[in-house]
Write a structure and sequence with these properties.
The chain is α+β, with helices and mostly antiparallel strands and about 170 residues long. The chain is built from 5 helices and 4 strands.
Length: about 170
């Protein structure tokens, strides 16, 4: 295998980013069509479907800002997406775990960017709670970003453990 085949091969994982985007936008469209804004629909203990619109970032960070945050987050996500695709392209053949983590983050970021550009807010609808504590509502894109970031964190610990084993 030549160098370009070894590094470019991880771009094949972009299908997973496309799947994340499709699932995210599809579930957001269903939530928007089937739920009334702000009206929780109990699904099981500790979980509701609740349609909410988030003009901010994670945990509604900057949601109360005057509107500049919309294009700030769109620009930030676009820059991060370019960085992620370049990183993906440079991965080695054995770095599949990292490739999956990157495309999960990429798909989630692009799903939320679509909402920001088209609607001016991100559609959230997954709503967990415990007694009187309500976790901020989120969506499939947020889930993919979180899983991808978690995979990257686990990979750091895994690589750290492998480095210690080699040093001994």
């Amino acid at each position: 295998m030549n160098q370009s085949e070894a590094t470019g091969s991880k771009l094949r994982w972009l299908w997973l980013a496309a799947l994340v985007i499709a699932l995210d936008l599809g579930t957001k469209a269903m939530a928007t069509a089937m739920l009334s804004y702000g009206n929780p629909v109990p699904v099981m203990p500790m979980f509701n479907l609740t349609l909410l619109h988030n003009t901010g970032a994670a945990f509604s960070f900057l949601a109360g800002a005057s509107g500049w945050q919309r294009w700030f987050f769109v620009t930030l996500a676009a820059v991060v997406s370019v960085f992620l695709v370049r990183w993906l392209k440079q991965l080695k053949a054995e770095e599949t775990w990292t490739a999956i983590a990157i495309v999960l983050i990429l798909g989630g970021a692009l799903g939320n960017v679509y909402d920001r550009v088209v609607h001016g807010y991100v559609v959230d609808f997954l709503h967990f709670y415990w007694n009187d504590y309500h976790f901020p509502a989120f969506n499939i894109a947020d889930t993919a970003i979180t899983v991808g970031a978690g995979m990257m964190i686990l990979d750091i610990f895994r690589q750290s453990g492998e480095s210690k084993d080699k040093a001994e």
